[in-house]
Amino acid sequence: MLYSKIEGTGKPLLILHGFLGMSDNWKTLGTQFAVDFQVHILDLRNHGRSLHSENFSYEIMVQDVVEYCQGHKLENIAIVGHSMGGKVAMLLAISHPELVSKLIVADIGPKFYPQHHQEILEGLNAVDFSLKPSRSDVEEIMSQFISDFGTRQFLMKSLYWQEPGQLAFRFNLAVFNAKMEEIGVPLSENAIFDKPTLFIRGGNSKYILDSDFDTIKHHFPHSSIETIPKAGHWLHAENPAEFYQKVTSFLK
């Protein structure tokens, strides 16, 4: 079963992180949501402390979440998904509408996305852990490929001591190298979820464009789309207060 952090009581609220992320990224917001909900922050397959597997697709990640809900006897859930986690949440809601009461999708749409993580993957693959680099060594190597400090800090959160003197990434980089095309796949044309749905996008992000609104409404006819100004793709980290307000207002 997937690794998770559970906090609070009440109606279940599941939170799914984005590509190369993990549950720790949502720790602060999870504690805030736990005032009103039983919050389950999951590590998706091949991320964080969850299982590593050669199998990696949205369909299999959805099945992981379904089995997690069955194992914890969760019903009538609300679910928040960011980026890749938003794609998982969308497909879960469409394929198991009886399980999901409300859906919140953060800065990702149902459309196809071309591969755009090449520089990040180059930076990650440039790290040779057999040389037993220090944390500062790892960041220095990545900085040669990844100029954005915030992105590097986000990736460094998945760095851990596998054993004394030996660092490693918690995510399954080898599988991501082999199956990157899986991250960008769209929802099928006839996929529809007709329950309340909220899309939240960052005003400085280009993941959800105005031209995507018709496609979103096709798949999610009872959806609304809101924007957090002056926030990018990591909108929940850049403006957590407004993100929290928009999600809680929608869920109440």
TrEMBL record:
<keyword id="KW-0378">Hydrolase</keyword>
<dbReference type="GO" id="GO:0016787">
    <property type="term" value="F:hydrolase activity"/>
</dbReference>
<dbReference type="Pfam" id="PF00561">
    <property type="entry name" value="Abhydrolase_1"/>
</dbReference>
<dbReference type="InterPro" id="IPR029058">
    <property type="entry name" value="AB_hydrolase_fold"/>
</dbReference>
<feature type="domain" description="AB hydrolase-1">
    <location>
        <begin position="11"/>
        <end position="108"/>
    </location>
</feature>
<protein>
    <submittedName>
        <fullName>Pimeloyl-ACP methyl ester carboxylesterase</fullName>
    </submittedName>
</protein>
<dbReference type="InterPro" id="IPR000073">
    <property type="entry name" value="AB_hydrolase_1"/>
</dbReference>
